[in-house]
Protein 1
Amino acid sequence: MLKHDVLIIGGGLAGLRAAIEAAKNNVDVAIVSKIHPVRSHSGAAQGGINAALANNENSKDDTPEKHAYDTTKGSDFLADQDAVELMTSLAPETIFETDHWGCPYSRTANGKIAQRPFGGAGYPRTCYAADKTGLYLLHTLWEQTVKHHIKVYEEWMVVDLIVQDKVCYGVMAIELRTNQLQPIAAKAVIFATGGAGRVYGRTSNALTSTGFGMALPYIAGVPLKDMEFIQFHPTAIIGKHILMTEGCRGEGGYLVNNKGERFMKNYVSEKIMELAPRDIVARSIQTEINEGRGIGGQQFVHLDIRHLGEQKIMERLPGIRDICMDFLGVDPIKEPIPILPAQHYTMGGVAANKNCETEVEGFYAAGECACVSVHGANRLGGNSLLETIVFGKIAGKYAGEYVKGIDLNTEHSSYKNFTNKMNGFMNRLYESTGNEDPYRIKKDLNDCLDENVGIFRTEEKMKKAVETVKQLKERYRKIRKVKKTSSFNQDVVWILELEGNLLAAETIAAGALARKESRGSHSRTDYAKRNDAEWMKHTLAYYTKEGPRLEYSPVAVTKFQPEERKY
Amino acid sequence: MTTFNVFRYDPAIDKCPKMETFDVKNERGMTVLEGLFYILENLDPTLCFRSSCRAAICGSCAMHINGQYRLACRTQIEHLKSDTVTVRPIAHSEIIKDLVVDMTNFFANLEKIKPYIINEGPFPEREFLQSEGERKGLDHLIDCILCGCCYGACPSAGTDEDYLGPHALMKTLRFINDPRDKGGKERLAFVSSENGVFRCHTVFNCQEVCPKDLDPSSAIARLKMKAVWNTLKNLVS
Ligand SMILES: Cc1cc2nc3c(=O)[nH]c(=O)nc-3n(C[C@H](O)[C@H](O)[C@H](O)COP(=O)(O)OP(=O)(O)OC[C@H]3O[C@@H](n4cnc5c(N)ncnc54)[C@H](O)[C@@H]3O)c2cc1C
Ligand code: SF4
Ligand code: SF4
Ligand code: FES
């Protein structure tokens, strides 16, 4: 049987960073990833990563504490402040480390890491490498895993988490090349499987961000936390919904409606304008569109960066220009960019504490798939890349230490039990007599979430979403037969991912329906105000066959008392 | 409707590869990748291809499309100006199934050049200071998404699987140009060896096909100059 001390699922930034750290303990570390690590979704990140480095003339007074305050306020006071403080205080050293490893950050005139303004931040705090920060960081961390000879199971898909009596024993995985299913035994497992954006149809996320990595621990008994908080990014291009980084506005870009008006002045103070936090900008754009002020009365407004001039655009936003040219045929040096809000980030995820530990022993989670709760009800741009490397590192450290006291018994009954369970599932797929089309189910799910659990939410729509997801789960049980092939069975992969989609969706819809207030990204027209007395608490969704059972847990407040969130 | 001519091959059952035809309902702005998904979801769920970002940044979907190496997600069907779209896997790599090829050799070659900063410290307490000029020396060289288009198009890679290839050689220059890297000499010596820069015949195929508009061939030419210069210097001293 394959076995390792620490097994990390996911080759994105969180997974790679965890592997590098765990390996420092002289233990046997391996990564499993359904795609080659450099293909991970982290590579699509554009704008940058936050740390109070105080590298600019006008950011000399910036400190980790101010970063923590901005993050907490941005989260609409739902983030756990102890975790936030940990993250912002470790931010500088964690970023310097990536500089020492060769990440090609852009530079200030005096040679330091360059920083740009981002929404909701008191200072220019977002360290950037042109507009490809994610790509460069991802390659840099992957390079370190090559240096340290860390084993990677490339194109192996994890299909179940082996948990018995609240202890984790490893995972079940399919080697895509051979279609072989087998257990991989491990003393500790870290999930770093990314977000669940593809639950929605209109999303900036990669096709591989399906939420399957959240669904597996959920089924295994680990609750998913705060899943109702879904970030809608204000600026995705029309049609393909590919992201235009917040850096466009950080560098000075405007948002303009059909009257040529910079409409953000009607929603926030003139000092903040386009650089309000994402939830607020997304709602403002959606309001403009709903009230008929989209361009030509249509479902989009303009992001205008023409006034930045060719030189600045080519230097700081070259990737943005490429995307516009490739996917819209629009040159942003000469024309404004048609944009609309799109699903972008899952604030919620696998419930984990600030050591990335979960309710299951030996099971850790980090990165977008986790919710240690540093983003609360709304994430600030640039904080997610930071979360991946800070908490990736922390997960690696704790898992690496934990395994030293553990014996691995590959004869344990769980391996046989889970192998049988998974084989049973696969055989049902191969021999199914059902007639449901999985891709139709996927489409219906996407439409349902787009329509009913979007930027503005109502009781009626969310009820409908909960009902529809239930029906779709029923249909999933009657999926048509799958053809056996000898390798790379994509049909099987997408059908498994669809189960992840469905389970993530049920927690999003149920959490949203239950939360009778508006906070951060969760904006209800029927309960328009934040309600700290009743709702300043985390949602925990536990898996049951009938649907999620909701519990709640308190928010950690240290320095910052909740206040009205005004910009 | 657009006709897709797709390369099909399953080494476990097929004696030889074949081209298969599908009618794809083409909507405005549809990419070749979306066309392939249309086939997978509506016509033949056994079709195999790689994808992830659908935004030309992850490097998964390199293919040979209507006579050229391209990223399927970045290629709009309309722009091909043809009623048929012909899709084949990239060359010089073993076919696993249909459009999915084995990229082990591509990555193994990259790993040979020690694709990481060689510097065991001590490191400054904060970041390294780097002038704008020093940082500019990395421009473009860092933008490679490791898609393999260049490798598939490179005649030298086709005749010799040990040839490091345009991607790995360009990466070498990226590290040599980085003041944080201490491996310059070692790197130059390595790429001057028999499977390195002198196997490149500067035919520019790689530069022509790179979907990120990068130019591995001139990076290799610069490496060659450095290598020659280094040898001369060693002779003199
Ligand atoms: C377009 C875009 C731009 C962004 N820009 C920024 C930005 O500028 N700043 C910022 O802070 N944040 C940004 N974000 C958010 C940020 O990029 C992500 O939250 C972050 O990269 C997630 O990293 P991760 O390591 O958690 O997961 P990912 O990078 O998504 O990696 C997930 C990994 O898990 C693997 N995996 C998943 N499921 C399985 C399975 N079942 N079996 C095996 N392997 C599996 C995948 O192969 C992959 O390697 C952006 C997001 C998007 C969509
Ligand atoms: S220039 Fe060199 S590396 Fe590029 S295709 Fe030609 S032989 Fe290959
Ligand atoms: S150099 Fe260009 S073609 Fe070659 S792997 Fe990199 S991005 Fe692809
Ligand atoms: S799918 Fe990522 S480059 Fe095409």
Protein 2
Amino acid sequence: MTVNADISRTRLPIMRVQNVTKTFSTISAGRRTHLTAVDQLDFTIAAGETIALVGESGSGKSTAAKCVADLLAPTEGTISMDGAPTIRPGRRARRRDHRRVQLVFQDPNGSLDPRQTVRQVLEEPLRNFFGNNRGELRRRVRELLADVELDESLLNRRPRELSGGQKQRLGLARALAVEPEIIVLDEPTASLDVSTRGQMLALLERVQRHTDVAYLLVSHDLAVVQSLADRVLVMYLGSIIESGPTDRVFTNPQHPYTKALIEAAPKMEYRALRSAWRLDGEIPSPTDRPSGCLLTNRCPVVQPDCHAQRPPLVAVDADHLSACIHPELLSAPSMDARTAS
Amino acid sequence: MTRTKLAADDMLAVEGFSASFDLKGELRPVLKDVTFSLPSHSMSAIVGESGSGKSLTALSVLGLAPRRLVRTSGQIRYRDSVLTELSERELRTVRGARIAMVFQDARAALNPVFTVGHQLEATVRAHQKVSRKQAKSLAADALASVRIPDVSRRMEQYPHQFSGGMAQRVALAQTLLCDPELLLLDEPTTGLDVTIQADVMDLITTLGAERHMTTCLITHDLGLVGQYCDRVIVMKAGEVCEQTDAKTVFSTPTHPYTQLLLDASELKQRDTTERRIIA
Ligand SMILES: Nc1ncnc2c1ncn2[C@@H]1O[C@H](COP(=O)(O)OP(=O)(O)OP(=O)(O)O)[C@@H](O)[C@H]1O
Ligand SMILES: Nc1ncnc2c1ncn2[C@@H]1O[C@H](COP(=O)(O)OP(=O)(O)OP(=O)(O)O)[C@@H](O)[C@H]1O
Ligand SMILES: [Mg+2]
Ligand SMILES: [Mg+2]
């Protein structure tokens, strides 16, 4: 192997997610039905990298995030770190390897114990390393607070006495406590105002530069994704339908769903003109996924051959993949595209 | 103290409303002389930084603020009644049926031990005299209107089986079933992707027009304000610092804090060409 001057270009993946599928079985009208929350997910994460998972509500992002964090066992497929499979199908999800992957939950209220003080929240995971060495515990707690820029005066407060932004930071500090290699961030800025959001993003970047931690980011906020992520995975109905470097996916989307997602983002204007590229129609159920392309019933440029079979993810160029067999219709002006269909 | 008269076309007026947290006898002011009005049939937005008092203001309208929050001055008027003078019993007849709110933590508003269908049907039957069957079909329609797929199966599921964004839409559907005249929405779309957010906001706008609803949205998203709202109330540290037309906010914001919010809304894009990693 030749030595590359640019270190970031030669990084090997620290985690490999291969063909991960997660199904839930639910009972409906007395009959058991299977719901495919995540279907054959395939991606890698390298150290110091940020990957974003975006997609419609219910498309399987949180389920995928929980599988990566080993809080859910996949039904099929493997997730390995440095080559050794850590998570196999069927095995009950155990909190093993928690040290290497940490999850910061979507809802900070639900994941913080209301009775614990800030100090207790942070000391708990640290005891695994330092036991009851009070001096070490105190030193590390202070370090963590400094990392996330929380004031030491908050140490004795309980979650309800913290603002939304402070709770988010505490969640991040708790995840950092065990020095993980990957942090899964489920909607880290959802409840933050725009100024706190900016601070949180700057903080995440700084922590990443210092510790080389990788982030798997789940977010509906496309501005956040664009400012933080190196690569984006776009999910629809459990499957990745497009993936690639953030700038290329955003400036040149190759799938009609991605295009609709990007164009639906509200602009910072009064009554901005809205794109005609919109998805109508029923959102299909994950218990009954269309057999051809998953978007067929809502796609503005659907063609007869789209129903034939599920299009695989194929490379558009280098590391930009898409599962649309008619990308040429995406560049057509939206209105024409719509009438043509 | 600033006073605004409840103009004939105002649905709600908050007038010089101040409130403090009672911390074991010591009063910590959190809402300071809050004054704004919601014109009838308008869609307004309250924006402002985290902790500025947006949720507490909305909760105060419904009389649902934490017990420790004590009003120190001012009043809240709704049509002909002064809400801040009503007894708990009187407030209860207003709440839900005439003024309804979707809470910031939508999932917490759902009961984990009952199916979603059961909860929605109960809401219908609490507000309308209809048969069980009709209640069920109205509940199903409400779920479909907020873009929940596969309604009949979803009705039989429990809240934990819904994704975060779906639970939020269920809470919205439940509120819309009450057919309120004044609808307060605390961060109704934060967990939703932008395509569904657009659908949900279009639904709120259409229903608002059809049913002559007055809507007030609490949000961090100025893009949403520009797209859907007529009026904007900007709060900072417990005070209203600007109240104006949505259009004006984007063309000529007067308060420096409003300008700050607009600037902070635009994020710098990450330069991925520099950091590209081959994995
Ligand atoms: N415990 C469960 N039992 C049954 N179904 C579930 C369960 N957890 C998730 N699901 C279903 O799996 C699908 C994917 O859910 P998931 O929470 O991963 O979505 P998401 O992409 O995170 O959505 P959101 O953006 O709304 O949070 C949904 O249809 C959801 O209802
Ligand atoms: N139950 C409570 N006890 C003590 N203080 C509280 C309580 N609820 C809210 N506060 C404080 O009152 C202030 C206003 O809170 P509020 O919830 O109205 O803010 P907000 O504008 O809705 O913020 P966010 O955007 O984060 O939801 C904050 O400083 C908050 O910490
Ligand atoms: Mg989720
Ligand atoms: Mg709030």
